Amino acid sequence: MSPAWTSFVEQLPSQCEVCRRWGRGRLCSGCIARFAAPRPRCRQCALPLPGGAERCGECLRDAPPFEHAACVADYGFPWDRLIAEFKFHGAVELATVLARCVGEAARDMPAPSLLLPVPLAAGRLAERGYNQAWELARRIARRRDLPARADILLRPVDTAQQSELTRAERAANLRAAFVVDERRRPLLQGQRVALVDDVLTTGATARAAAQTLLSAGAAAVDVWVLARTP
After folding, report:
1. Which residue of 44, 59, 215, 222 has the lowest C-beta tally within 10 Å?
2. pLDDT tens digit string along 136-156?
């Protein structure tokens, strides 16, 4: 969809997915202000923190390989329902407003050179029909005038669903789950990468993906997501 067409579509009357009032866009400004109000968070993993603290105790004890994380809100109402509709029920039309929210949440993060989605394995992608992380990443990239690629970081192994596993099982499940396409490795050299996904839960997926990118030559990795599980 071209930027001009996207802009036109965004101006069409639509019902807010949360309050059901008519306006422009799938989420009204009132609901965004109410349910995505900024709050103090760990700058590295985006967990809620008391005001004035920069990093949480977990990041101080065992820092993840990514440098910063930005999120729109905690995983809960109404984001849990919106993400489920977007991710599992084909509501790709929500990507535009959700991507705008992620971009706003990340506006104070270091400027990346490249946006990459957390990839899906081929089987999961065929089953779902699209990668929700790529739908977000490419729209954020268009708004920020940044390059976005879905062919650099790959997921050749169709691992078990992370939502069904414990924290330790999630980490084990993702060992060697990600690879960088050797033909595109030069695109990563010395670059700051923003890794885009829908939810950051234990951080196991983001850790594994970020470590793969750093090992392939990226200078730094940040994580941008819609929601953070408290």
Report:
1. 215
2. 999 999 999 999 999 999 999
Per residue in 53-88, pLDDT (tens digit) is: 899 999 999 999 999 999 999 999 999 999 999 999
This prediction has a pTM of: 0.89
DSSP string computed for the chain: --HHHHHHHHTSEEE-TTT--EEESSS-HHHHHHHS----B-TTT--B--TT--S-HHHHHS--SSSEEEEEEES-TTHHHHHHHHHHS--GGGHHHHHHHHHHHTTTSPPPSEEEEPP--HHHHHHHSS-HHHHHHHHHHHHHT--B-SSSEE--S-PPPGGGS-HHHHHHHTTT--EE-GGGGGGGTT-EEEEEEEEESSSHHHHHHHHHHHHTT-SEEEEEEEEE--
Q: How far apart are CA 117 and CA 101, in angstroms?
A: 16
Buried b (16+ CB within 10 A) or exposed e, 33-65: eebbeeeebbbbbbbebeeeeeebeebeeeebb
| 177-216 residue pLDDT tens | 899 999 999 999 999 999 999 999 999 999 999 999 999 9
